[in-house]
Amino acid sequence: MPLSSEQKRRRKVTKELQKMPLKCIKDYELYNERARELSVPVKPAPAELHEHMKVKFLRRDGMEHDVPLYLHTALIHFEKKVSHGHIYDIPKIVIREYQKLGMPKYKQYVNKATGDSETVFSHKDPRFAFQVVLDD
């Protein structure tokens, strides 16, 4: 059965995608943009291409266990086990994501006029901290 013109076009564009150079993050962004248009799986940029920071990993609970840092998005694929108090070189995008994690804390709000009470979100108590380490 012969291929339709749409199938031929998609094959041609897919071959062009395979020839695209993937040397920097911008190349991966352009590749992924084009891949989404064609409904082809995107390729995350390797962690080595992202900007890194030297940080000391701190954990507020259960310090004896290692924490597997895992982030897989269209921008990056990163996996690493880290321990409390050790120094690591970690991509900034991973640090930002893990700093957002936390245990939600709530407070009781009482309406003084009616006496009704309501529980409302107060803040997040962070689970992890990344202390920047400056080179000597």
Give a quick precis of the structure.
This protein is α+β, with helices and mostly antiparallel strands. The chain has helices at 5-19, 25-37, 92-99, and strands spanning 45-46, 52-59, 67-72, 76-82, 87-91, 102-110, 117-126, 128-132.
What can you see in these coordinates?
The structure is a single chain. This protein has a three-stranded mixed beta sheet. Strands 5-2-8 form a three-stranded antiparallel beta sheet. A two-stranded antiparallel ribbon has the order 6-7. The protein has helices at 5-19, 25-37, 92-99, and strands at 45-46, 52-59, 67-72, 76-82, 87-91, 102-110, 117-126, 128-132. By secondary structure, the chain is of the alpha+beta class. It folds into two domains: 1-43; 45-136, no CATH class.
Features of the shown structure:
alpha+beta; three-stranded mixed β-sheet; 8 strands; flat
Give the secondary structure arrangement, pairings included.
Blueprint: H1 5-19, H2 25-37, E1 45-46, E2 52-59, E3 67-72, E4 76-82, E5 87-91, H3 92-99, E6 102-110, E7 117-126, E8 128-132
Helix content range:
25-40%
* Main sheet record: 3 strands, mixed
| Count of DSSP-assigned helices | 3
Strand order of the largest sheet: 1-4-3
> What structural class do helix, strand and pairing data support?
alpha+beta
* Beta strand %: 35-45%
Whole-number tally of structural domains: 2
- Gyration radius, in Å: 23 Å
Specify the overall morphology: flat
